[in-house]
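Appendix B. Chain record.
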Amino acid sequence: MRSTTLLLCLGAVFLAANGYAVPKISPELREQLKKSSSVEIIVKMAGGNKAALQNAKASRQMNTLEVRASTVSHFLQIHAQESQASLLAFLSQQEGITFKSFWINNAIFVQNASPELISAISLREDVESVQFNTKVEIVRPTATHKVQTRFQANEWGVSKVQAPEAWAAGYDGTGARIAIIDTGTRGTHKDLAGSYIGDNGWYDAVDGSDAPQDLGGHGTHVMGTIVGANGIGVAPGAKWLSCNAISFWDGTSASVIACGQWVVCPTLPDGTSSPDCNKTPHLVSNSWGFIREWDHEAFYSEVIDAWHAVGIVPIFALGNEGSACETGRFPSGQENVIAVGATDVDNALAYFSSRGPSNFNGTLYLKPDISAPGVNVRSSSSSGDENYEEMSGTSMACPHTAGVAALLFGIKDDLTYDELREILTTQTTLDLQPTGDNCNGTGDEDWPNNSFGYGLVNALKSVNAVRARK
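C-alpha cells predicted for this chain:
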C-alpha cells in the first residue's frame, strides 16, 4: 500500500516537473517545483467557504455589524474544523513542515512542502487546489518625498474632496471604524495616536510585533489620509485598526489571508486570543495587489465574500500600471470591490493610474469605480512622530475614498455595500480633464468610463445624500 501511494506521488511530481497539467496543482506552483525542492503552499479545501456563508446568512442572528461578524466567524470556524480535520491530522504526522489553518477561506498554509508532499495532498478528494504562496506587493508609490513640516491647514486632497465642508456640517467620521491591510502603522504619530482604537486594534501577520509599527513606511501614510488629525485626513473622527501583511514592500498570499481573517473579528496581537467583534471595522482600505505575472484574479475572492457576509466594505487601489487600458491589479479588478483611480490637483487623471476594464471570471467590468486625489499627497510619515512625506499613487487615492466612506458610516453605521457604493458613485465631481483616450468603447465623454470611473469622490455631496436618507 505504501509503495503504491509513493508511486502515485512520484508520478504526479514527474508530471508537474515536466510541465504537464496536473489536476489541482496551479501552473505557478508547477513552475516553482522545477526550481526548488521545498516551497510554501496554500491548500484550498473542496467547497471553500460557500456552505458556511450560506448557513450564516440563514441564521437569524445577523441584525448588526457586530453580530454578523460573530455569527459569520462562528460558522466559518466550525466549517473549517470539520472539513480540514483529516488533512490537518495527516500534516501533523509529516516531519520538517509547519502549517497554519485559515477559517476565513477554508485553506491551509504549509511551509517547507516537498514535491512528494504536494503530490500526496493534490490526490486527496477533500482538496480543491494546491497553490503557490505567491508574492503580494504594495501598489508602489511612483514618487516619495520626505517633508519635515507642513504649510497649510488642510492638505490639497482633503480640500479637493470637500471634507472640510462636511466637517463644518458636523460630520467628521465619529462612530466609524476603519482598518487597513498594509505595511503597518506608526501608532505614536501625533496625528494618529488619538484615533487608535486600542485593544484588538493591531495584528502583525509578518513580524509578530505587539504594538503598531511600520517598517515599510507605506501604511502610516495611507492611515494619515484616512483618519489623520490636523488636516491630513478625511475622517479625523473615525477610529482605526491596522494589520501588517507586507514586510517592507512585499508580502504573500498567506499574510493577506491572515489579515483578512483578523479583520472579521479582531483579536489581540497574537492573532488568536480574545476576539472582539465589537471592534469589527466598517470598511477595509487595501493598497496592495497580486503580482501580474500570474493569473490570481479569483484567489482572494472567498476572503472578500466573507467580508461582504459580515458587511465590511472592501476598498482597493486599482494600481499604478497605467496609462494603458486593462492594467488594473487584482483583487481590485473584482466586481464586488470599490476600486480607486488617481487624479492630480488639476483634476486630471494621473499618468500612472491603471485603467479598466477588468476581466474577472471571463466577464469585463468597468474599473476604476471612482477616482480620488493621488499625486503629491502629503501625509504622516513612519520616520518620526512629527514627520510627513509626499507620495503619489493610487495607494494615496484609495485612502481618500476610504475616508469619505468613513464619514458616511459615521452618520449611518448600517449602510450596506450596495448603498454605500451607490452613494459614492452618484455623488461625484464630474468636472475632470478629459484624457482623450477610449477603453473598451467608453471615452471621457461617457460616464462612467474606464479612466475615472463614475468621477471624483465628493465628501460633501455624499454626506448630504446620506443625511437625506436617514
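Further analysis of this model is presented in Appendix C.
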